[in-house]
């Protein structure tokens, strides 16, 4: 609990200073980057552009007022700021780790949580860690101690490359290895934190398991 108490204010400060849209003052949602390098939520920019320019291809930055041309497809075709999306995913993961005090997300028992499987996106106790290692399909999963994650010793953004697996369009370098039962779509590990969190009611399973059950 002490670790959570120490880490939480730092995460809140990072979120407030770097992860809030300058238009809506809320956490970024699909952050798009302008030529001036300022970023805003896609929906916020679309509303701002419609209100100010009524369909014209130009737009001025809401912060620095630099004027620039939009792509022919409009705001949606602007580059996504993947640095921000990755930072949001890492901060959310650190917050989950910091708050993971006693409940194992595998056995759901009140036990000392010691590790996190970065592929399953679950905090696990030592007993479940042993069981986790006994399944051949899970041997390639990346498992780290909560201590190493808290201390920044684990590269949370490390990406695995596998040409035979479907990549995620929203999070480059990530593989869509999960199936969101709630949204009926394949998602990656970062999606389970940013766009399809279990805390919001999303349910997902292993992609291979889902493919067998839905045949």
UniProtKB/TrEMBL annotation:
It comes from Acanthaster planci (Crown-of-thorns starfish). The keyword Zinc-finger applies. This is E3 ubiquitin-protein ligase TRIM56-like. GO terms for molecular function: zinc ion binding. SMART domains: BBOX (SM00336), RING (SM00184). PROSITE patterns: ZF_BBOX, ZF_RING_1, ZF_RING_2. InterPro entries: TRIM45/56/19-like (IPR047153), Znf-RING_euk (IPR027370), Znf_B-box (IPR000315), Znf_RING (IPR001841), Znf_RING/FYVE/PHD (IPR013083), Znf_RING_CS (IPR017907). Gene3D superfamilies: Classic Zinc Finger (3.30.160.60), Zinc/RING finger domain, C3HC4 (zinc finger) (3.30.40.10). It comes from the Eukaryota. Residues 21-65 form the RING-type domain. The gene is LOC110983898. Residues 99-146, 163-207 form the B box-type domain. Keywords: Metal-binding, Zinc, Zinc-finger. It holds the Pfam family zf-RING_UBOX.
């Amino acid at each position: 609990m002490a670790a959570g108490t120490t880490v939480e204010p730092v995460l809140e400060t990072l979120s407030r200073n770097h992860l809030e849209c300058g238009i809506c003052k809320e956490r970024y949602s699909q952050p798009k980057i302008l030529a001036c390098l300022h970023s805003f939520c896609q929906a916020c920019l679309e509303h701002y552009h419609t209100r100010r320019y009524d369909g014209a291809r130009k737009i001025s930055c809401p912060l620095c007022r630099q004027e620039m041309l939009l792509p022919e497809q409009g705001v949606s075709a602007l580059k996504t700021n993947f640095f921000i999306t990755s930072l949001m995913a890492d901060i959310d993961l650190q917050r989950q780790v910091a708050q993971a005090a006693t409940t194992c997300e595998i056995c759901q028992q009140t036990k000392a949580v010691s590790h996190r499987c970065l592929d399953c996106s679950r905090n696990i106790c030592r007993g479940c860690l042993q069981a986790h290692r006994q399944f051949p399909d899970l041997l390639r999963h990346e498992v780290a101690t909560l201590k190493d994650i808290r201390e920044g010793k684990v590269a949370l953004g490390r990406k695995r490359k596998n040409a035979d697996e479907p990549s995620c369009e929203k999070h480059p370098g990530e593989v869509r290895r999960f199936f969101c039962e709630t949204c009926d779509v394949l998602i990656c590990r970062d999606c389970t934190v940013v766009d399809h969190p279990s805390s919001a009611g999303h349910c997902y399973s292993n992609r291979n398991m889902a493919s067998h059950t839905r045949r």
